[in-house]
Design the sequence.
């Protein structure tokens, strides 16, 4: 009888652990309740980028279609998709990466990069406390090398709610996953060419942090993002668990174009 009770206790414990209890992925849980708490009117709001050099892709699928008339970034279960977000916890560590191309001949003076993340149940006041960034001269999974940044320096400049909720397409008004902008101070100049940025974060909430992927209505493949997980020890394609399609990661690079006559590159 004691053995049977022990088995029951284990089963109850497993059943009580939410689907996002793992560090790598925040996946759809049919038992997850829909929450419709109103946004905190006093929560700081992200003001958006000013000097955009590069935008890696959209998050919003339903402008004004989320809880309280805010925007929604829908996980499209109608297309068989199953991943709200990817783990990018610096404390694990898990990390995300995606590529970008400096198109101007004189290069870019990169001043900041804005990433996006959420911690389930956080409310609309951001819980993010840290962001760590590295820039690579090539694919980190295929021989690229770090040319700027490290995983020692917290580069968080500011963080605030984006007015976007990460939701299911079957529950657009859910407010459990408010997406935050996480602005990292960079301060380096990059020559014309293709680079990869990898990043991870920390927060005071209990869930995640999670990185929502680029979301486009009607599309399952949205990019060529990568995820490094401590459990695997390597970089792998950031694949949606339902559709097994690769996802891109949204980020925004801000700064100025360097005039050709002033071209000078000092990458630290």
Sequence:
């Amino acid at each position: 009888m004691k053995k049977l009770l022990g088995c029951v206790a284990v089963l109850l414990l497993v059943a009580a652990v939410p689907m996002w209890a793992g560090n790598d992925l925040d996946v759809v849980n049919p038992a997850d309740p829909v929450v419709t708490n109103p946004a905190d009117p006093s929560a700081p709001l992200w003001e958006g980028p000013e000097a955009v050099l590069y935008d890696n892709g959209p998050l919003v699928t339903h402008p004004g279609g989320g809880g309280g008339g805010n925007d929604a970034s829908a996980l499209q279960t109608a297309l068989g998709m199953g991943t709200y977000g990817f783990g990018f916890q610096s404390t694990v560590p898990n990390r995300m990466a995606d590529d970008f191309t400096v198109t101007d001949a004189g290069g870019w003076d990169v001043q900041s990069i804005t990433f996006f993340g959420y911690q389930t149940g956080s409310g609309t006041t951001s819980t993010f406390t840290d962001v760590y960034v590295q820039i690579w001269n090539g694919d980190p999974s295929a021989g690229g090398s770090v040319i700027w940044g490290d995983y020692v320096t917290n580069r968080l400049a500011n963080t605030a709610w984006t007015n976007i909720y990460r939701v299911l397409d079957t529950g657009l008004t859910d407010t459990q996953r408010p997406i935050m902008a996480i602005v990292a101070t960079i301060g380096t100049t990059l020559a014309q060419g293709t680079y990869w940025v990898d990043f991870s974060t920390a927060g005071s909430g209990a869930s995640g942090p999670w990185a929502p992927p680029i979301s486009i209505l009607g599309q399952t493949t949205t990019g060529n993002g990568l995820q490094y997980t401590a459990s695997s020890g390597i970089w792998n394609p950031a694949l949606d668990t339902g559709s097994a399609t690769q996802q891109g990661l949204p980020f925004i690079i801000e700064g100025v174009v360097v005039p050709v006559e002033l071209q000078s590159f000092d990458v630290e």
Summary: The first strand starts at residue 25 and ends at 27. Confidence is low (pLDDT under 50) at residues 1-21. The chain has one helix and 15 strands.
